[in-house]
């Protein structure tokens, strides 16, 4: 079926950050979208706390893989999620959003 978001979808002159996109996705009627977006929001908040704790204990190392992940999120995943929020969400688009959230979740691993 069709799903409708909370109305946080960006206007042409505004570009939402990842948090805003995930909040919008959490308002859809699709259980997987809601679950995936809430899971990622939770990971984001816990990540910040965990990162702060780890930074106190050790030096933060940047690896080529972490830079690749950042670029993938910035250049591919987030722009596509933003675009999908601008259009009517058909089942195909909802399925694609779920795939993107799963990919994003796989990249959000704190070592």
Number of helices: 4
Strand count: 0
Q: Whole-Å distance between the termini?
A: 38 Å
Outline type: globular
The secondary-structure class comes to: mainly alpha
Largest sheet: none
Q: Beta-sheet strand percentage?
A: under 5%
Q: Average pLDDT across residues?
A: 77
Element pattern in H and E: HHHH
Q: Approximately how much helix is present in the residues?
A: 55-70%
Extract low-pLDDT stretches: 7-12
The whole-angstrom Rg is: 15 Å
Can you describe this structure?
The protein is globular. The protein is 68% helix and 0% strand. It has 111 residues and is an all-alpha fold. It has helices spanning 18-25, 31-57, 64-86, 91-107. It starts with 17 loop residues before the first helix and ends with a helix. The model is unreliable at 7-12 (pLDDT under 50). Helix 1 packs antiparallel against helix 2 (31-57), helix 1 packs across helix 3 (64-86) and helix 2 (31-57) packs parallel to helix 4.
Quick overview:
The protein has helices at residues 18-25, 31-57, 64-86, 91-107. With 111 residues, it is an all-alpha fold.
Layout of strands and helices, then pairs:
Elements (H helix, E strand, L loop, with lengths): L17 H8 L5 H27 L6 H23 L4 H17 L4
Features:
111 residues; single chain; mainly alpha
